[in-house]
Every structure is written in structure tokens, then in C-alpha cells.
Amino acid sequence: MEGEYSYDPNSFEVTEKMIEDYNRLGFIIVRGLLDAQEMALLRKTLEGSDAIMKHAYQIPDGLGKSVGMCIWSHPGNDITGIISRSEKLVRTSEKLIGHGEIYHYHTKLPIKEPNTGGSFRWHQDYGYWYQNGNLFPDHLNTVYIAYDKNDRENGCMQVLVGSHKAGRQTHHRVGGQNGIDEERIEHLAKVCPLKYVELEPGDALIFNANLIHKSDANNSNKRRWSFLVSYNTKENNPVYVHHHAQYTPLDVVPNSAIKACANFTDMTGKEFLDPSIDKTVIADKSNPVKIPKTSE
């Protein structure tokens, strides 16, 4: 399918066709970017203790439900940090962005529990990151890795193909989030086809910061967590100090370091986000995230 590729640890490299697809579509999909063993290690970190999840909070979607969220600014040395510092994430994003050295802007974990997980409204990441003092949207991207299976039933990502070329859209506060005006979306959807991004665990959607996307509420009995790593370039270091990271040199590690990592609980240096200092969202402090220890 257009814009889709498969990860082979022995031969994967970013090709001119991938770069062309990324620039034209606003994204590419890489199937199997993390394999089953790497996903198992990630699960051990996120579900084996509360070292990360104790920092999670809820963001209301304005429609009666909420999305759980956990965000940290620096990768650290645990398995989540090693994944975000691995060559296959860093070098792939660096080549797709095409503006030189990149650094870890932040990692986030959206949490959509069965039947209760809320929606993300139509938005661009740059709709938020513009407010943080990032001057150039094409210098930022996100590697969205499916933690659980993502399908239409449990609220998978939806994108408007090629919508990054429409530039930054005006965003308005809805619930605890920021969203694009629905009338504007209707017009854009006539020229930018809607795509449901259905993913298996370990598959990755790598997308431009101006790509317009959303996800519906999870009304199914299947959990839907996601693991997202966002990168920015050194050249695009934000002009404002804010709740995400300023330029910090990234200690890139070989892909083999993921399976060699045995750190599942030491989160030193990650700097978890306190939602009270995030001026781009409104968290619901009265509704803590309750995390079950079992997957779907």
C-alpha cells in the first residue's frame, strides 16, 4: 500500500522513495519497527511497575470522556529511553526530516482504556508546538508506535493524507485539548483523503508535525495504548523555554542495545511532565489514571 514499508533488521534503510512519500503524504508507515521481543521489554517497563505510569494524568476530550497521558522530556537509560535513542528511530527520523541533527523533544504515552478512553480531536501537533516557540514545523516529527493493536473499533489514528501541505491551521480549545474548526476540516477532507491507520503492535506511523490527524473514542472492550517519540532538530531549538525539552545532544545507541537493556525501573533524568505547567492542555486532576496490569 502507498507509503507503507516493512522493517528488516538486516536491510532496512531510508530510501529516496520513502523520503518522497513522507514529503508528499505527510507520513510513512513502517511495519514491524519493533519486534515481539522488543515490545515485550517495553511492556515489562510500562506494566511491570508504576515507575512511569504513576506520572500519568487525564485530559478531557470535551465529549464526556478523557484520554490518559504520560509525557517525559528526556529519554533516560531505561528501555523506553533506549528505544527512543536507537538508530532505527533516530536515523530514520533524521533522514526523513532532512534538516541535520535531531534531538529527543519528548516521549508520550496516550492511554485509551476499554469503553472509557476518550478521543483526540482533529489537530496538528504543530498546533501545540507552535505555541512552544518552534519556528519551523518541518523540523519536527513523531514516531507513533502501536503498543496494542490499533483498529477502527478501538479508536485508531485517522489522518488527512497530504494535509501537512495546507500549513498551520488555527486551533481552538475544546475540553482539555486544542482542535481545528470542523468546517475547515470538511473542506480539507474534500482534497486530502481520510485514511484510518490500522496497526499491529510494533508497527510505526512516522509523521510530519503539520499532518492533520485525530482518533475516536475507544468504545470497544479492547485497550489501546500507544508509544510516541517526537523529535526536533538542533537548528529548530525552541525560542521559548517551556515544558518540553530544549536542544540536548542525543546519545544514539545501536539497535542491539534495546534487547540488551535490563533497566526497567530506574527513570533518572527523564523529567516527567507536570500537567500544571503545560499551557497547551487542561488536565483533569480529579480523575486519576487507573492502570490495569494486563494487556488485551
From TrEMBL:
Q: Which cofactor does it need?
A: Fe cation
Q: Which InterPro entries match?
A: Phytyl_CoA_dOase-like (IPR008775)
Descriptive protein name: Phytanoyl-CoA dioxygenase, peroxisomal-like
Recorded source organism is Lingula anatina (Brachiopod)
